[in-house]
Amino acid sequence: MIRQSGHIKEQRSPLKKVGLARAISKMGYCSRSRAAELIRAGRVKWNGTLRRDPESPVHLGKDRIEIDGQPLAVSTKVYLALNKPRGVVTSASDEKSRETVYAYLPKDLPWIAPVGRLDKASEGLLLLTNDSEWAAEITAPETHLDKTYHVQIGAIASEALLKNLQEGIRAEDGDLLHVKRASVLREGARNSWLEIVLDEGKNRQIRRMLEHCGVEVLRLVRVAIGPLELSDLPKGATRLLTKQEKLALDRAMNLRAQVPSSPLR
Fold it and tell me: Is 5 buried (19+), middle (13-18) or exposed (0-12) by CB count in 10 A?
């Protein structure tokens, strides 16, 4: 597994240093930004010495880190899938007191964070983990890991619409937005369901493209990330990824990273 091989490499490179905040995040205790807050607040010691600089160099796996006087140990890596309901915010807290995805997580887990985002109005497959490096690989643009969405629109989909989505649309900010594939799943009298596959993850990309085309989005559901499918996971429910699913994601990222991207990307 990619993560396993990376872990072995770290253990064999004892001179490798990372910033203190990053070390705490890599150990699965909290996010890097939260770790920086703890360090600046004087709650973190390095080899018995108080440190207030989040970038203080640390030998990960060798130096001793304490938070509030308690030694920090590497947390067991957790890889979780959530079927995010519509109307729920993808964050740890919300300034408007809206419900967040953390309301749906099991209580006995270590700290975990969302891998990427789904906006409030969107629903479907969301990954969460305390493996910050793996999360960064999942969301990295160069990985081009496919994300598959089922989108209900308030119109009958035309061939021209599908062509526009795939050829690309120039957004108001000058950004070129395009989908990898777009097809019709089914049609009703006044609306359609599309299957849209992205291999890039720009903010509100599908909604922005369809809005540009004058098409209303009624529902937007992410049904797959790479080879991992939402399947029959109930709305609001979670489950841990199996070893086989984690390995399949790692392999997919490795393969996609080796494929040259098109000039438009």
Answer: exposed
Q: Which amino acids are annotated catalytic? A: 119
- pTM over 0.70? The answer is yes
Across the chain, which distance is largest between two alpha carbons, in Å?
Answer: 69
- Rounded to an integer, what distance in angstroms lies between the CA atom of residue 21 and that of residue 26? 9
3-state class (DSSP) for residue 160:
helix
pLDDT digits (tens, 9 = 90+) for 128-179: 999 988 998 998 877 778 999 999 999 999 999 999 999 988 877 778 898 9
Containing H/E element for 22? helix 20-26
At residue 12, does pLDDT exceed 60?
no
CB 123 within 8 A of CB 221: yes
Structure tokens at 154: 């308030």
Q: How far apart are CA 132 and CA 134, in angstroms?
A: 5
